[in-house]
Amino acid sequence: QVQLVESGGASVQAGGSLTLSCVYFRYDYSSLCMAWFRQAPGKEREFVSSIDSDGGTTYADSVKGRFTISQDTAKDTLYLQMNSLKPEDTAMYFCAAEMRDSGCYDTARRYTYWGQGTQVTVSS
User: Fold this and answer.
1) Using a CB cutoff of 8 Å and minimum separation of 24, what contacts does 80-84 make?
2) Could you tell me the sign of the dihedral formed by the alpha carbons of 96, 102, 104, 110, in that order?
3) How far is residue 45 from each of residues 19, 54, 82, measured CA to CA in Å?
4) What per-residue confidence (pLDDT) applies to 28?
5) Taking 90 as the threshold, does the pLDDT of residue 119 lie above it?
6) How far apart are CA 44 and CA 69, in angstroms?
7) Bridge partners, 78 (sequence order)
8) If you write DSSP's letter for every residue of 90-123 in order, what string do you get?
9) What is the number of other CB atoms lying within 10 angstroms of the CB of residue 67?
10) Which of these, 16, 72, 80, 81, has the minimum number of CB atoms within 10 Å of its CB?
11) pLDDT band per the 50, 70, 90 thresholds, residue 102
């Protein structure tokens, strides 16, 4: 079982930067696939980025070159560095985890564990 707690959401101006954090608590040391998703009002939850147990990363085309996913395994913390933010990045951002030896998913339904979300609002 894995518990996830996000933080770092805020209101920022377009062009600004934010770093989201997700601390994860787990009861064994199974390999994890970790990801960020986001959901805007009235829209489906969409994939943002993932990092697998080997450190391999994947990004949605909409954030490629602007967002960076990373993790500090010593602190059991996942990060999402977001630069050059746009109003269309406004959403609730969720951290997700799935036990998996290698690789990762870009589909929300493949993840078992979710955080409560942190709100990011980007104004023009």
Assistant:
1) 80/19, 80/20, 80/22, 80/36, 80/48, 80/49, 81/17, 81/19, 82/17, 82/18, 82/19, 82/20, 82/120, 83/17, 84/15, 84/17
2) negative
3) 20, 25, 18
4) 76
5) yes
6) 21
7) 22, 71
8) -EEEEEEEEE-SS-----GGG--EE---EEEEEE
9) 21
10) 72
11) confident
What the block records as the tokens of 16 is: 């600004």
Q: Residue 92 corresponds to which amino acid?
A: M
- Tokens 């929300």 sit on residue: 108
Residue type at position 104: C
Q: Is 69 exposed, middle or buried (0-12, 13-18, 19+ CB in 10 A)?
A: buried
